[in-house]
Write a structure and sequence with these properties.
It contains eight helices and no strands. Helix 6 runs antiparallel to helix 7. The radius of gyration is 20 Å and the shape is globular. The relative contact order is 0.16.
Length: about 180
Amino acid sequence: MVMKWYRENVWAAVLVTVARIYLGWQWLDAGWHKLTADNAFNAGGFLKGAVTKPVADHETGAMIFPNYTYFLDHFALPNVKLINFLIPVGEFLIGLGLIVGGLTLTAGLFGMLLNFLFLFAGTVSTNPWLLLIGFIVFTAGANAGRFGLDRYLTPLLRKGWKKLFAGKAAGGGGHVTG
Protein backbone atom coordinates (compact mmCIF):
# COMPACT_ATOMS: atom_id res chain seq x y z
CA MET A 1 0.00 0.00 0.00
CA VAL A 2 2.83 2.41 0.84
CA MET A 3 4.74 1.49 -2.31
CA LYS A 4 1.62 1.95 -4.43
CA TRP A 5 1.26 5.47 -2.99
CA TYR A 6 4.97 6.12 -3.49
CA ARG A 7 4.97 4.95 -7.09
CA GLU A 8 1.66 6.54 -8.18
CA ASN A 9 0.70 9.51 -5.97
CA VAL A 10 1.25 13.03 -7.30
CA TRP A 11 2.51 14.31 -3.92
CA ALA A 12 5.01 11.48 -3.71
CA ALA A 13 6.13 12.51 -7.22
CA VAL A 14 6.69 16.06 -5.95
CA LEU A 15 8.90 14.79 -3.10
CA VAL A 16 10.83 12.47 -5.40
CA THR A 17 11.28 15.29 -7.92
CA VAL A 18 12.96 17.42 -5.25
CA ALA A 19 15.28 14.51 -4.34
CA ARG A 20 15.88 13.78 -8.04
CA ILE A 21 16.90 17.36 -8.83
CA TYR A 22 19.19 17.55 -5.79
CA LEU A 23 20.83 14.26 -6.75
CA GLY A 24 21.08 15.37 -10.37
CA TRP A 25 22.80 18.59 -9.35
CA GLN A 26 25.38 16.65 -7.33
CA TRP A 27 26.21 14.46 -10.33
CA LEU A 28 26.11 17.29 -12.88
CA ASP A 29 28.36 19.47 -10.72
CA ALA A 30 30.90 16.67 -10.20
CA GLY A 31 31.02 15.88 -13.92
CA TRP A 32 31.16 19.54 -14.94
CA HIS A 33 34.14 20.24 -12.68
CA LYS A 34 36.01 17.29 -14.16
CA LEU A 35 35.15 18.31 -17.72
CA THR A 36 36.12 21.97 -17.32
CA ALA A 37 39.09 21.75 -14.93
CA ASP A 38 42.28 23.53 -15.98
CA ASN A 39 44.22 20.29 -15.62
CA ALA A 40 42.48 17.38 -17.34
CA PHE A 41 40.78 14.78 -15.16
CA ASN A 42 42.98 11.73 -14.66
CA ALA A 43 41.69 8.69 -12.79
CA GLY A 44 45.08 6.95 -13.03
CA GLY A 45 46.24 7.85 -9.52
CA PHE A 46 42.91 6.87 -8.00
CA LEU A 47 42.92 3.54 -9.83
CA LYS A 48 46.54 2.77 -8.86
CA GLY A 49 45.70 3.58 -5.24
CA ALA A 50 42.65 1.32 -5.32
CA VAL A 51 44.79 -1.54 -6.68
CA THR A 52 47.80 -1.09 -4.37
CA LYS A 53 45.67 -0.55 -1.28
CA PRO A 54 42.40 -2.40 -1.91
CA VAL A 55 39.54 -2.64 0.57
CA ALA A 56 40.68 -5.35 2.97
CA ASP A 57 39.55 -7.14 6.10
CA HIS A 58 41.14 -5.44 9.12
CA GLU A 59 41.97 -8.70 10.91
CA THR A 60 43.17 -10.92 8.08
CA GLY A 61 44.26 -8.34 5.51
CA ALA A 62 42.41 -10.33 2.82
CA MET A 63 40.91 -8.35 -0.05
CA ILE A 64 37.15 -7.98 0.30
CA PHE A 65 36.51 -7.33 -3.40
CA PRO A 66 39.26 -9.27 -5.21
CA ASN A 67 37.33 -9.49 -8.49
CA TYR A 68 36.87 -5.73 -8.57
CA THR A 69 40.55 -5.14 -7.80
CA TYR A 70 41.40 -7.54 -10.64
CA PHE A 71 39.08 -5.58 -12.96
CA LEU A 72 40.75 -2.30 -12.00
CA ASP A 73 44.25 -3.73 -12.47
CA HIS A 74 43.62 -5.59 -15.72
CA PHE A 75 41.00 -3.46 -17.48
CA ALA A 76 40.60 0.01 -15.98
CA LEU A 77 44.30 0.88 -15.59
CA PRO A 78 45.33 -0.31 -19.07
CA ASN A 79 42.36 1.65 -20.47
CA VAL A 80 42.70 4.72 -18.26
CA LYS A 81 42.11 7.07 -21.22
CA LEU A 82 38.68 5.49 -21.71
CA ILE A 83 37.96 5.74 -17.96
CA ASN A 84 39.10 9.39 -18.00
CA PHE A 85 36.44 10.04 -20.63
CA LEU A 86 33.64 7.87 -19.22
CA ILE A 87 33.70 9.14 -15.62
CA PRO A 88 33.22 12.88 -16.21
CA VAL A 89 30.90 12.47 -19.20
CA GLY A 90 28.93 9.80 -17.35
CA GLU A 91 28.60 11.92 -14.21
CA PHE A 92 27.48 14.90 -16.28
CA LEU A 93 24.90 12.90 -18.26
CA ILE A 94 23.57 11.20 -15.12
CA GLY A 95 23.08 14.62 -13.57
CA LEU A 96 21.47 16.06 -16.68
CA GLY A 97 19.07 13.13 -16.98
CA LEU A 98 18.05 13.41 -13.34
CA ILE A 99 17.59 17.18 -13.43
CA VAL A 100 15.43 17.23 -16.56
CA GLY A 101 13.68 13.97 -15.66
CA GLY A 102 14.64 12.31 -18.94
CA LEU A 103 15.43 8.59 -18.84
CA THR A 104 15.28 9.06 -15.08
CA LEU A 105 15.46 5.41 -14.09
CA THR A 106 18.38 4.79 -16.43
CA ALA A 107 20.24 7.81 -15.05
CA GLY A 108 19.45 6.72 -11.49
CA LEU A 109 20.64 3.18 -12.16
CA PHE A 110 23.94 4.35 -13.64
CA GLY A 111 24.40 6.80 -10.77
CA MET A 112 23.94 4.03 -8.22
CA LEU A 113 26.32 1.82 -10.22
CA LEU A 114 29.02 4.51 -10.13
CA ASN A 115 28.45 4.97 -6.38
CA PHE A 116 28.96 1.24 -5.85
CA LEU A 117 32.09 1.21 -8.02
CA PHE A 118 33.60 4.08 -6.03
CA LEU A 119 32.69 2.34 -2.76
CA PHE A 120 34.25 -0.95 -3.93
CA ALA A 121 37.44 1.03 -4.57
CA GLY A 122 37.39 2.21 -0.96
CA THR A 123 36.17 5.78 -1.45
CA VAL A 124 33.41 6.59 1.00
CA SER A 125 33.07 10.38 0.58
CA THR A 126 29.47 11.28 -0.36
CA ASN A 127 28.84 7.95 -2.09
CA PRO A 128 26.63 6.37 0.62
CA TRP A 129 24.50 9.52 0.78
CA LEU A 130 24.14 9.74 -3.02
CA LEU A 131 23.46 6.01 -3.19
CA LEU A 132 20.65 6.34 -0.64
CA ILE A 133 19.04 9.22 -2.54
CA GLY A 134 19.51 7.33 -5.80
CA PHE A 135 17.71 4.34 -4.28
CA ILE A 136 14.85 6.61 -3.17
CA VAL A 137 14.54 8.02 -6.68
CA PHE A 138 14.92 4.65 -8.41
CA THR A 139 12.31 2.86 -6.29
CA ALA A 140 9.73 5.50 -7.21
CA GLY A 141 9.68 4.00 -10.69
CA ALA A 142 7.92 6.03 -13.37
CA ASN A 143 6.70 8.45 -10.70
CA ALA A 144 10.29 9.76 -10.43
CA GLY A 145 10.04 11.25 -13.92
CA ARG A 146 6.43 12.36 -13.69
CA PHE A 147 7.45 16.02 -13.61
CA GLY A 148 10.08 15.87 -16.30
CA LEU A 149 10.80 14.78 -19.85
CA ASP A 150 9.82 11.20 -19.01
CA ARG A 151 6.19 12.34 -19.07
CA TYR A 152 6.62 12.65 -22.85
CA LEU A 153 9.45 10.18 -23.50
CA THR A 154 7.92 7.15 -21.78
CA PRO A 155 4.82 6.89 -24.04
CA LEU A 156 7.01 7.32 -27.13
CA LEU A 157 9.45 4.66 -25.96
CA ARG A 158 6.63 2.24 -25.11
CA LYS A 159 5.04 2.79 -28.51
CA GLY A 160 8.36 2.19 -30.28
CA TRP A 161 9.08 -0.87 -28.13
CA LYS A 162 5.66 -2.39 -28.93
CA LYS A 163 6.08 -1.64 -32.63
CA LEU A 164 9.54 -3.20 -32.66
CA PHE A 165 8.47 -6.44 -31.01
CA ALA A 166 4.89 -6.72 -32.29
CA GLY A 167 6.12 -7.19 -35.87
CA LYS A 168 8.47 -10.00 -34.89
CA ALA A 169 5.83 -11.85 -32.87
CA ALA A 170 3.13 -11.59 -35.55
CA GLY A 171 5.39 -12.28 -38.52
CA GLY A 172 7.24 -15.25 -37.04
CA GLY A 173 10.54 -13.41 -36.87
CA GLY A 174 10.37 -11.94 -40.36
CA HIS A 175 11.14 -15.17 -42.26
CA VAL A 176 9.44 -15.65 -45.61
CA THR A 177 8.07 -19.12 -46.29
CA GLY A 178 6.74 -20.50 -49.48
